[in-house]
Amino acid sequence: MPKLDEIHSFAVEEGIKEDPRDEEKIEEELEKRKEKYEELEGKKKEHYDEDKLENPFDDSKVIYAGDRDVEKIAVGIDIETQDLILIDRLNEKGEDIDAAFGHHPEGRALANLYEVMGLQVDTLEQAGIPVSQAEGIVRPRAEEVKKGVHASNHPRSPRTAELLDIPFMCLHTVCDNHAYQFMKNHLEEEEPETLEDVVDAILEVPEYEWSLKYDMGPEIFAGNGNNRAGKIEVLGFTGGTGLKDDLIDKMVESGIDTLIVMHAKKEQIKKAKEENINIISAGHMPSDSLGINLLLDKIQEEFDIDVFELSGFNRVER
User: Fold this and answer.
1) 162 and 67 in contact (C-beta within 8 Å)?
2) Which residue among 9, 54, 210, 220 is least enclosed by CB atoms within 10 Å?
3) Is 207 part of a structural domain of the chain?
4) Read out DSSP for 69-85?
5) Alpha helices in the chain (DSSP H)
6) Do 115 and 12 have their domain in common?
7) How many Å apart are CA 299 and CA 8, to the nearest integer?
8) Residue 266 covered by a domain
9) Do 204 and 275 share a domain, yes or no?
């Protein structure tokens, strides 16, 4: 049976394979980190997160490693303090869960969420937005996210996992990369003509069909179902978190007609309507489940482990 850190290392490798950036670019980034690490001194070097030297996804970390073989792992969209207590309670009732795998980052992974947003520069550039404009959109938003999460209680969930001795990891962008590549390829193959066709194409994916049970399936946020989809781009599926409404101006300039997102802010929707840009929200929870499932298929092929679903996650095997 594997340890949690073995599963995490494998997941990171798979996340790199699905990353929108070239692997060479990722390696260059890791080399820069190593150079900066060597220049550090004193307390900053002593407490440096050395996982950053091998793992380019700062929102995807082992939060508490423990020393337990993993035979059954609890998987959820959000694994927080209350979920870890739930797992402990389930174990008291005989579930024998060995570890927890949450999608959304906790602890140090949340504190460093802003670090992964740089890859959105690459997805925007691939969508036809000039790289200088893409950086002008992403960098200020990353700084905003950095400040926004700074005051969070980052030790809370890690300490809970430690006290309950439940090995715990978060895999955020690692999973989102899988969902991003899948959705891009799926819509390119389907070639939907109208916005309603786009919604129908998304609903062909089991995770999105399942989400209708909870009224959290794909929705047209800007535009009409009879509108022609035109040039479709999948953006905001990976790279930490969503961007602000200034993205819409750059879409207009780059000839993008329809934006497929996991979720969209009110200001972004308002701006899209003003500029006659279509926005379809595929749905946050089903999109997250999609990315987790694609990764779990690989993990379960590599390691003989069972999955226990909770916290908004729906297991679909392919």
Assistant:
1) no
2) 54
3) yes
4) --SEEEEES---HHHHH
5) 4-17, 23-39, 42-46, 81-92, 108-111, 119-126, 131-149, 156-164, 173-190, 195-203, 206-211, 246-254, 266-274, 284-302
6) yes
7) 9
8) yes
9) yes
Q: Which two tokens stand for residue 1?
A: 């049976």
154: phi then psi, degrees, rounded to nearest 5: -65, -30
Q: Which of 235, 291, 290, 295 is closest to 263 using CA atoms? A: 235
Structural domain harbouring 231: 179-283
Do 87 and 131 sit in the same domain of this protein?
yes
Q: Flag whether 317 is in a domain.
A: no
**Is 108 found in the same domain as 187?**
no
Evaluate whether residue 229 is within a structural domain.
yes
pLDDT tens-place string over residues 94-131: 999 999 999 999 999 999 999 999 898 999 999 888 89
Torsion of CA 270, 274, 278, 282, to 10 degrees: 0
DSSP 8-state symbol, 115: G
Does 162 lie in the same domain as 80?
yes
The confidence score (pLDDT) of residue 265 equals 86
Q: What is the pLDDT of residues 158-208, one digit of tens each?
A: 999 999 999 999 999 999 999 999 999 999 999 999 999 999 999 999 999
Burial readout 159-174 (b: 16 or more C-beta within 10 A, e: otherwise): ebbbebebbbbbbbbb
CATH code for position 271: 3.40.1390.30
Q: Has residue 13 got a pLDDT over 80?
A: yes
Token digits for 316? 């679909």
